[in-house]
Specification:
The structure is a homodimer.
Chain A (H helix, E strand, L loop, with lengths): L2 H41 L2 H22 L3 H9 L20
Helix pairs in contact in A: 1-2
Protein name (chains A, B): MazG nucleotide pyrophosphohydrolase domain protein
Keywords (chains A, B): Hydrolase
Pfam family, one (chains A, B): MazG
Chain lengths: 99, 99
């Protein structure tokens, strides 16, 4: 699936509600999902983990929609030509450094 | 960009480090990036916001790689045929409910 198509799918599904709720309120939902992902990673099944990854990605995408950020452009710009730290396609940044 | 291609790109860039660090340590980096995204949404430029969205997506993806979760399958399964709450392509869940 194209990331851009997913962003459009989520826009069609939730944009009206997202805009009404605003970024702050929508961010709270993202945080709740991040907590659920942490719990699933600690003690969930792979199926539960898959669901929580999907939810975090959906809430991140929905906030990007409200903020007017195209996620495809964002990742291409930052990661498309290599690690933002060292510039290589296989990162060789020092382990203590990001990332 | 295909989401699967991005997941492969991030795998090639960081997988060895991610596996060495493990899910717990990698999750800490995700949290740091989520904090930076919150700051950028509050007072950053659109360009800064774009960079932070990319970083959160990259760290989420890298954790999915360590956990063995295919993000494309995950979102298709959960959102591909409609809102997980109400089943519609344009969500009509009650506003008080998720999502």
């Amino acid at each position: 699936m194209q990331l851009g198509d997913f962003q459009q799918l989520i826009r069609g599904m939730y944009h009206e509600k997202d805009v009404a709720r605003g970024i702050d309120g929508t961010f709270m939902w993202l945080m709740e999902e991040v907590g659920e992902l942490a719990a699933a990673l600690r003690e969930g099944t792979l199926e539960e983990q898959r669901g929580e990854f999907a939810d975090v990605l959906a809430w991140l995408t929905t906030i990007a929609n409200v903020a007017g950020v195209d996620l495809t452009e964002a990742i291409q710009e930052k990661y498309g030509s290599g690690c933002p730290g060292c510039g290589r396609m296989a990162c060789d940044c020092d382990d203590a450094e990001k990332p």
